[in-house]
Design brief:
The protein is an alpha+beta fold. It is built from 8 helices and 17 strands.
Amino acid sequence: MKGDDEITAAAASRIIEGLTGIVARAAAATLSTPFSDVATRIKTDLTPITAADDSSEAVILEGLSKLLPDVPVVSEESVLRSFASPLPRSFLIVDPLDGTREFLAGRDEFTVNVAIISDGSPVVGIIAAPAQGMLWRGVVGQGAERLKLRLSGSEAKAEKPVAIQTRKATERLTVVTSRSHLDEHTEDFVARLPVVKRYLCGSAVKFCQLAQGDADVYPRLSPTCEWDIAAGQAIVTAAGGVVASAHGDALIFGGWNKKFRVSDFLAWGDPKAAAAFI
Protein backbone atom coordinates (compact mmCIF):
# COMPACT_ATOMS: atom_id res chain seq x y z
CA MET A 1 0.00 0.00 0.00
CA LYS A 2 1.55 3.31 -1.09
CA GLY A 3 1.46 6.52 0.90
CA ASP A 4 -0.52 8.39 -1.77
CA ASP A 5 -3.28 5.76 -1.58
CA GLU A 6 -6.10 6.34 0.89
CA ILE A 7 -6.16 3.87 3.79
CA THR A 8 -9.86 3.55 4.54
CA ALA A 9 -11.23 2.22 7.79
CA ALA A 10 -12.28 -0.95 5.97
CA ALA A 11 -8.74 -1.50 4.68
CA ALA A 12 -7.22 -0.63 8.05
CA SER A 13 -9.35 -3.21 9.84
CA ARG A 14 -7.48 -5.91 7.90
CA ILE A 15 -4.17 -4.87 9.43
CA ILE A 16 -5.38 -4.08 12.96
CA GLU A 17 -3.89 -7.25 14.42
CA GLY A 18 -0.50 -6.45 12.94
CA LEU A 19 -0.64 -2.93 14.34
CA THR A 20 -1.74 -4.27 17.72
CA GLY A 21 1.26 -6.57 17.82
CA ILE A 22 3.64 -3.71 17.03
CA VAL A 23 2.21 -1.48 19.76
CA ALA A 24 2.25 -4.34 22.28
CA ARG A 25 5.93 -5.02 21.58
CA ALA A 26 6.70 -1.31 21.89
CA ALA A 27 4.88 -1.31 25.22
CA ALA A 28 7.14 -4.11 26.40
CA ALA A 29 10.17 -2.13 25.24
CA THR A 30 9.26 0.82 27.47
CA LEU A 31 9.48 -1.48 30.49
CA SER A 32 12.61 -3.37 29.45
CA THR A 33 15.07 -0.92 31.01
CA PRO A 34 15.03 -0.75 34.82
CA PHE A 35 13.63 2.61 35.88
CA SER A 36 16.73 3.39 37.94
CA ASP A 37 18.83 3.08 34.77
CA VAL A 38 16.70 5.35 32.59
CA ALA A 39 18.74 8.34 31.47
CA THR A 40 16.88 11.56 30.70
CA ARG A 41 17.82 14.30 28.27
CA ILE A 42 16.00 17.50 27.31
CA LYS A 43 14.81 18.11 23.75
CA THR A 44 14.91 21.44 21.96
CA ASP A 45 11.29 22.11 23.00
CA LEU A 46 12.40 21.68 26.64
CA THR A 47 10.43 18.46 27.14
CA PRO A 48 12.13 15.33 28.50
CA ILE A 49 12.99 12.19 26.55
CA THR A 50 14.38 8.89 27.82
CA ALA A 51 15.86 5.65 26.55
CA ALA A 52 12.36 4.17 26.90
CA ASP A 53 11.09 6.63 24.25
CA ASP A 54 13.93 5.60 21.94
CA SER A 55 13.38 1.87 22.49
CA SER A 56 9.67 2.12 21.83
CA GLU A 57 10.16 4.20 18.68
CA ALA A 58 12.71 1.73 17.30
CA VAL A 59 10.28 -1.17 17.73
CA ILE A 60 7.42 0.77 16.14
CA LEU A 61 9.36 2.03 13.14
CA GLU A 62 10.83 -1.39 12.43
CA GLY A 63 7.40 -3.01 12.65
CA LEU A 64 5.69 -0.42 10.47
CA SER A 65 8.44 -0.66 7.85
CA LYS A 66 7.46 -4.29 7.38
CA LEU A 67 3.68 -4.01 7.77
CA LEU A 68 3.17 -0.79 5.76
CA PRO A 69 6.49 -0.15 4.03
CA ASP A 70 5.25 2.56 1.67
CA VAL A 71 3.23 4.60 4.16
CA PRO A 72 4.98 7.66 5.68
CA VAL A 73 5.35 7.75 9.46
CA VAL A 74 5.19 10.94 11.50
CA SER A 75 6.85 10.15 14.83
CA GLU A 76 7.28 12.65 17.64
CA GLU A 77 10.96 11.98 18.17
CA SER A 78 11.98 12.31 14.51
CA VAL A 79 9.31 14.49 12.92
CA LEU A 80 11.25 17.75 12.69
CA ARG A 81 13.99 16.18 10.63
CA SER A 82 11.59 14.21 8.43
CA PHE A 83 8.80 16.44 7.11
CA ALA A 84 8.92 19.85 5.50
CA SER A 85 6.20 19.41 2.87
CA PRO A 86 2.56 18.32 2.63
CA LEU A 87 1.83 14.69 3.46
CA PRO A 88 -0.03 12.22 1.22
CA ARG A 89 -3.68 11.30 1.77
CA SER A 90 -2.77 8.57 4.27
CA PHE A 91 0.02 8.37 6.80
CA LEU A 92 0.80 7.02 10.26
CA ILE A 93 1.35 9.15 13.33
CA VAL A 94 3.23 7.86 16.35
CA ASP A 95 3.98 8.87 19.92
CA PRO A 96 6.34 6.18 21.22
CA LEU A 97 5.95 7.30 24.84
CA ASP A 98 3.21 9.76 25.68
CA GLY A 99 3.39 11.05 29.25
CA THR A 100 7.15 11.02 29.78
CA ARG A 101 6.68 13.15 32.90
CA GLU A 102 4.36 10.48 34.33
CA PHE A 103 6.89 7.82 33.39
CA LEU A 104 9.68 9.70 35.16
CA ALA A 105 7.46 10.24 38.21
CA GLY A 106 6.88 6.50 38.49
CA ARG A 107 3.16 6.69 37.62
CA ASP A 108 1.44 4.09 35.46
CA GLU A 109 -0.30 6.57 33.13
CA PHE A 110 2.18 6.74 30.24
CA THR A 111 1.14 5.28 26.89
CA VAL A 112 2.29 4.20 23.42
CA ASN A 113 0.15 5.72 20.65
CA VAL A 114 -0.18 4.80 16.96
CA ALA A 115 -2.83 6.08 14.54
CA ILE A 116 -3.65 5.91 10.86
CA ILE A 117 -4.70 9.22 9.32
CA SER A 118 -6.76 9.27 6.14
CA ASP A 119 -7.75 12.51 4.41
CA GLY A 120 -6.90 14.50 7.53
CA SER A 121 -8.84 12.39 10.01
CA PRO A 122 -7.80 9.49 12.31
CA VAL A 123 -9.48 6.28 11.15
CA VAL A 124 -7.61 3.79 13.35
CA GLY A 125 -6.09 4.25 16.78
CA ILE A 126 -4.17 2.01 19.16
CA ILE A 127 -3.09 3.04 22.66
CA ALA A 128 -1.20 0.82 25.10
CA ALA A 129 -0.62 1.60 28.78
CA PRO A 130 2.40 -0.63 29.49
CA ALA A 131 2.47 -0.27 33.28
CA GLN A 132 -1.26 -1.00 33.46
CA GLY A 133 -1.02 -3.99 31.14
CA MET A 134 -3.83 -2.64 28.96
CA LEU A 135 -4.36 -1.82 25.29
CA TRP A 136 -7.24 -0.03 23.59
CA ARG A 137 -7.92 0.07 19.87
CA GLY A 138 -10.60 1.36 17.53
CA VAL A 139 -11.53 1.47 13.86
CA VAL A 140 -13.90 4.33 13.05
CA GLY A 141 -17.26 2.98 11.97
CA GLN A 142 -16.45 -0.52 13.22
CA GLY A 143 -16.15 -0.18 16.99
CA ALA A 144 -13.58 -0.09 19.76
CA GLU A 145 -12.04 -2.73 22.03
CA ARG A 146 -9.99 -3.15 25.19
CA LEU A 147 -7.39 -5.91 25.59
CA LYS A 148 -5.24 -7.04 28.50
CA LEU A 149 -1.52 -7.28 27.77
CA ARG A 150 0.97 -9.76 29.11
CA LEU A 151 4.43 -8.21 28.88
CA SER A 152 7.62 -10.07 29.69
CA GLY A 153 11.00 -8.73 28.57
CA SER A 154 10.65 -8.02 24.86
CA GLU A 155 7.73 -10.43 24.53
CA ALA A 156 4.13 -9.23 24.41
CA LYS A 157 0.84 -11.05 24.13
CA ALA A 158 -2.64 -9.55 23.88
CA GLU A 159 -5.58 -11.45 25.32
CA LYS A 160 -9.07 -11.71 23.84
CA PRO A 161 -10.56 -8.26 23.11
CA VAL A 162 -13.63 -6.90 24.88
CA ALA A 163 -15.90 -4.43 23.08
CA ILE A 164 -16.18 -0.98 24.68
CA GLN A 165 -18.38 2.04 24.08
CA THR A 166 -18.89 5.52 25.44
CA ARG A 167 -21.77 6.23 27.77
CA LYS A 168 -24.78 8.52 27.59
CA ALA A 169 -24.25 11.65 29.64
CA THR A 170 -26.49 12.39 32.63
CA GLU A 171 -27.22 15.71 34.34
CA ARG A 172 -23.94 15.43 36.29
CA LEU A 173 -20.71 14.86 34.40
CA THR A 174 -17.46 13.05 35.12
CA VAL A 175 -14.54 15.06 33.78
CA VAL A 176 -10.99 13.91 33.13
CA THR A 177 -8.24 16.51 32.68
CA SER A 178 -4.49 16.62 32.26
CA ARG A 179 -2.29 16.24 35.31
CA SER A 180 0.79 17.97 33.84
CA HIS A 181 -0.66 20.44 31.30
CA LEU A 182 -3.70 21.97 32.99
CA ASP A 183 -4.33 25.57 31.93
CA GLU A 184 -6.57 28.45 32.96
CA HIS A 185 -8.91 28.20 29.95
CA THR A 186 -9.56 24.53 30.62
CA GLU A 187 -10.20 25.24 34.30
CA ASP A 188 -12.71 27.95 33.34
CA PHE A 189 -14.50 25.54 31.01
CA VAL A 190 -14.71 22.84 33.68
CA ALA A 191 -16.05 25.39 36.18
CA ARG A 192 -19.06 25.94 33.91
CA LEU A 193 -19.95 22.23 33.76
CA PRO A 194 -22.26 20.35 36.14
CA VAL A 195 -19.41 18.20 37.49
CA VAL A 196 -20.04 15.32 39.87
CA LYS A 197 -16.56 13.79 39.69
CA ARG A 198 -13.20 14.79 38.30
CA TYR A 199 -10.01 12.85 37.55
CA LEU A 200 -6.50 14.14 36.93
CA CYS A 201 -4.54 11.88 34.63
CA GLY A 202 -1.53 11.93 32.33
CA SER A 203 -1.16 10.90 28.70
CA ALA A 204 -3.66 9.64 26.13
CA VAL A 205 -5.13 7.17 28.63
CA LYS A 206 -7.75 9.89 29.26
CA PHE A 207 -9.25 9.14 25.85
CA CYS A 208 -9.47 5.48 26.82
CA GLN A 209 -11.35 6.29 30.01
CA LEU A 210 -13.83 8.19 27.87
CA ALA A 211 -14.10 5.40 25.29
CA GLN A 212 -14.86 2.71 27.87
CA GLY A 213 -17.54 4.77 29.59
CA ASP A 214 -15.67 5.81 32.74
CA ALA A 215 -15.89 9.57 32.01
CA ASP A 216 -18.02 11.98 30.00
CA VAL A 217 -15.68 14.71 28.78
CA TYR A 218 -11.98 15.41 28.35
CA PRO A 219 -11.28 19.10 27.63
CA ARG A 220 -7.96 20.62 26.66
CA LEU A 221 -8.12 24.28 25.71
CA SER A 222 -4.41 24.79 25.21
CA PRO A 223 -2.12 23.72 22.35
CA THR A 224 -1.01 20.13 22.00
CA CYS A 225 0.51 17.96 19.27
CA GLU A 226 -1.23 15.70 16.79
CA TRP A 227 0.62 12.57 17.96
CA ASP A 228 -0.75 13.14 21.47
CA ILE A 229 -4.39 12.92 20.37
CA ALA A 230 -4.71 11.16 16.99
CA ALA A 231 -4.99 7.61 18.32
CA GLY A 232 -7.26 8.76 21.15
CA GLN A 233 -9.60 10.54 18.76
CA ALA A 234 -9.92 7.43 16.61
CA ILE A 235 -10.71 5.23 19.62
CA VAL A 236 -13.25 7.65 21.13
CA THR A 237 -14.95 8.11 17.76
CA ALA A 238 -15.02 4.35 17.15
CA ALA A 239 -16.57 3.88 20.60
CA GLY A 240 -19.39 6.32 19.84
CA GLY A 241 -18.00 9.65 21.01
CA VAL A 242 -16.81 12.79 19.28
CA VAL A 243 -13.63 14.91 19.33
CA ALA A 244 -13.61 18.42 17.87
CA SER A 245 -12.22 21.88 18.44
CA ALA A 246 -13.59 24.03 21.25
CA HIS A 247 -15.86 25.67 18.64
CA GLY A 248 -17.13 22.36 17.29
CA ASP A 249 -15.00 22.27 14.14
CA ALA A 250 -13.39 19.07 12.90
CA LEU A 251 -9.71 18.64 13.74
CA ILE A 252 -7.52 18.30 10.66
CA PHE A 253 -4.37 16.19 10.99
CA GLY A 254 -1.21 16.47 8.93
CA GLY A 255 -0.40 20.10 9.70
CA TRP A 256 3.30 19.96 8.83
CA ASN A 257 3.34 23.74 8.29
CA LYS A 258 2.02 24.23 11.86
CA LYS A 259 4.57 21.81 13.31
CA PHE A 260 1.70 19.34 13.83
CA ARG A 261 0.14 21.51 16.54
CA VAL A 262 -3.54 21.54 17.52
CA SER A 263 -4.81 24.68 19.28
CA ASP A 264 -7.46 23.02 21.48
CA PHE A 265 -10.04 20.22 21.59
CA LEU A 266 -12.99 18.78 23.47
CA ALA A 267 -13.53 15.02 23.61
CA TRP A 268 -17.04 13.87 24.55
CA GLY A 269 -18.43 10.40 25.10
CA ASP A 270 -21.96 11.51 24.24
CA PRO A 271 -22.26 13.60 21.04
CA LYS A 272 -25.56 15.08 22.28
CA ALA A 273 -23.81 16.44 25.36
CA ALA A 274 -21.11 17.89 23.12
CA ALA A 275 -23.73 19.80 21.12
CA ALA A 276 -25.27 21.16 24.32
CA PHE A 277 -22.05 22.69 25.64
CA ILE A 278 -20.48 24.21 22.51
